[in-house]
Design a protein that fits this description.
CATH class of the largest domain: Alpha Beta
Structural class: alpha/beta
Distance between the termini: 68 Å
Oligomer: single chain
Shape: globular
Number of helices: 25
CATH topology of the largest domain: Rossmann fold
Number of domains: 3
Bound molecules: iron/sulfur cluster, Broken Fe4S4 cluster
Helix content: 40-55%
Length: 654
């Protein structure tokens, strides 16, 4: 007999709660029920077990970690380090494969073999080229002219391919890393050579009988994680911007109230932007709208989930229906006529649930089939065939809806689309785009520091609650918050991504928000867009006045409700880049071990970044604020400076 779920304790998201009540009435299960019914394994939770060979699986004791060894003699430190390394590999591989798929698409577009997508943002193309020393102009007869776009794009594609396939040397985006940080990495031997090589070597080293020193394993998983953050993920973000446009501030609605009972509702869930971009065209196609109307619908409503949703919320203001944990509850509305998915964070539990409610559940990517789903492959040289099929299936299901529909009312407006280029522009203005005003505001103390609050939602903790409380504490203490992924959606739903949220901020941050019109909580995109936070941090260092390394900047990272291996890779590349990073929910290490001490203390001596853990949101936020203050103290900017009004001379200098 399953343990009964205390629904009101499961989430603070009203729409999710309403749907959990409905799921209970309907007699269907979601991940909330499954998590409630199955406690996490206490040994696995602490990463004290190994199944890397068939002499095991070996289970050590988290309570007395050095009392036992594995059959091969592996210690708790080796076992934990190998397990952690494999999480980094899996997470980094997910982002890297996503980035490589974007690169393949980009090349085909540039060669003219794929025509449904084009280079939309030539300025971004030029900017990325210039960042890695690819010329953007050419001299013809003594006259400097812009280079041919196709020629430039081909050179960029060739150069970025090194991110993946290179076997020696440094990946291209190392040119973006602040000089001193890069020097530290070179000394530590953690500069990525090429993502495929790092992933392969890391897997080799975790095989039985290879690398059995936790410090050496940690060196390679840092190099692997950096090949994700400054490699695979960064390539994915930059090429998506070039193909689909660099995000600029845009209004978007969030939450299940965006669905409409009288319309055909289509949801896209997953991570790559390609499927969604084509689905936007399909849902705006007058022929498809006519078909929907002929079936008795008002029209077609298109909404996003998870990071697929974040990509198009950022670029087009498409409504975002909910984050990871809301994917099942949204099916319970009975209003979703079709859900199309591509890769990552798609729970298998969606398939039987979709069957229950008659929702057409469609996988579209060759790398991710799900038993019980219909597979309609998205061919990038003819994407409309796939998306038009999904729209047809949705219309068909609308006509034949048999289950009662119940759509929660709540929806919330938010500002999205804050790329690092947009931060540059909004703070500096068109003619003097720069991070100087941001640095100035950090130095004068109006902004105490920066925080990147990111990551998943996890039914082991109260859904959305930890994200929202951590962020509220941070902005109350004048910390400007940058967000990605599911965490960003938690805060968008809570209404903190609007300029009016300045009323929840400390005086300094409130003043900055009121002057610039920015919300105190900035939505910078999807999981791969954590690379935007790295670029922003590097830009802050290069702008000057806040130290020479990323680790000098008053900045902290956080993933309060993380669950995926991608989050571990992200956390590790933040840490190795020099960012103090706090995780919530749980942390896969055993207390009182040398490996834990390395992650939570030792790494700080290497490059200034380190891990920390706090489940309680207030302790979590306080740890971040304490770290920010420590960095302010070291920079000698701890005292709040008097406000200085800029005169013309200051402006000229800027
Ligand atoms: Fe056990 Fe060692 Fe095999 Fe792991 S590698 S399962 S610790 S014997
Ligand atoms: S979707 S990795 S649950 S943030 Fe990128 Fe959300 Fe985490 Fe997936």
């Amino acid at each position: 007999m399953a343990k009964e779920l205390n629904i009101q304790e499961a989430s603070i998201c009203e729409t999710t709660l309403q749907m959990l009540e409905k799921a209970k009435k309907d007699g269907v299960q979601t991940c909330f029920d499954r998590a409630n019914d199955m406690s996490a394994c206490p040994i696995g939770d602490k990463s004290a077990c190994c199944k890397n060979c068939s002499m095991g699986p070996c289970r050590l004791s988290p309570k007395d970690p050095y009392a036992k060894k594995g059959v091969c003699g592996a210690t708790i430190d080796t076992i934990q380090a190998r397990n952690f390394a494999r999480m980094v590999v899996s997470g980094a591989a997910a982002h890297t494969d996503h980035g490589m798929a974007m690169l393949d698409l980009f090349k085909e577009v540039v060669h003219g073999k794929i025509t449904d997508y084009t280079i939309k943002d030539v300025d971004k193309l030029k900017y990325v080229c210039s960042e890695i020393d690819i010329p953007t102009t050419v001299e013809v007869d003594g006259e400097v002219k812009d280079r041919d776009v196709k020629e430039m794009a081909l050179e960029l594609a060739e150069e970025l391919e090194r991110t993946y396939t290179q076997v020696e040397g440094e990946i291209p985006f190392m040119k973006r890393v602040p000089e001193k940080t890069l020097e530290d990495w070179r000394e530590l031997g953690i500069v990525p050579r090429g993502a495929m090589r790092e992933l392969m070597e890391m897997m080799h080293r975790t095989h039985i009988g290879v690398d059995q020193h936790y410090e050496n394993i940690a060196q390679q998983f840092q190099r692997t994680a950096l090949s994700d953050g400054w490699g695979g993920s960064m390539v994915a973000t930059e090429l998506s911007d070039i193909l689909y446009g660099t995000p600029k501030a845009i209004h978007a609605m969030t939450d299940m109230g965006c669905l409409d009972e009288e319309s055909v509702n289509v949801i896209i869930h997953g991570h790559e932007p390609n499927l969604f971009e084509s689905m936007i065209d399909a849902c705006n196609d007058p022929k498809n709208i006519e078909k929907a109307k002929a079936a008795g619908a008002k029209g077609i409503v298109l909404g996003g989930m998870c990071c697929s949703g974040a990509e198009v919320m950022m670029r087009h203001g498409i409504p975002h229906i909910g984050n990871f944990l809301s994917a099942e509850p949204v099916i319970v509305t009975g209003a979703v006529d079709a859900m199309g998915v591509d890769i990552q964070c798609i729970m298998q539990g969606l398939a039987p649930l979709a069957e229950c409610y008659g929702t057409r559940f469609v996988t579209t990517n060759t790398r991710a089939h799900i038993e019980g789903a219909v597979h309609v492959q998205l061919e990038e040289d003819n994407p409309r065939e796939c998306v038009d099929t999904i729209v047809d299936m949705a219309i068909e299901r609308f006509k034949n809806r048999t289950k009662p529909v119940e759509i929660p009312k709540h929806k919330q407006i938010s500002i999205s689309g804050i790329s690092h280029e947009y931060i540059n522009y909004v703070l500096g203005g068109t003619y003097r785009s720069s991070y100087v005003p941001l640095n100035e505001n950090i130095i004068n103390g109006r902004i105490r520091g920066l925080a990147g609050v990111v990551g998943c939602t996890n039914p082991r903790v109260k859904h959305d609650w930890v994200h929202v409380e951590v962020v509220k504490e941070l902005i109350k203490n004048n910390v400007l918050v940058l967000q990605t992924g599911c965490s960003a959606i938690s805060l968008a739903k809570a209404g903190l991504m609007v300029p009016e949220a300045a009323k929840f901020c400390g005086d300094g941050l409130a003043e900055v928000c009121e002057t610039t019109g920015l919300p105190p909580v900035l939505n910078v995109g999807s999981c791969v867009d954590n690379s935007r936070i790295l670029i922003a941090a590097a830009e802050v260092v290069k702008t000057g006045g806040l130290g020479d390394r990323i680790s000098d900047v008053p900045v902290a990272g956080s993933a309060p409700e993380w669950m995926s291996e991608k989050a571990i890779s992200i956390g590790q590349y933040f840490v190795s880049s020099g960012v103090y990073t706090v995780f919530g929910a749980t942390f896969p290490v055993t207390d009182n071990t040398k490996f834990k001490d390395l992650l939570f203390n030792g790494l700080e001596e290497q490059h200034g970044g380190m891990w920390d853990f706090a489940k309680d949101p207030y302790e979590h936020a306080q740890k971040m604020i304490d770290h920010i203050d420590k960095k302010r103290e070291a920079l000698g900017i701890q005292e709040k400076k008097e406000r200085k009004l800029f005169d013309m001379a200051d402006r000229r200098e800027l």
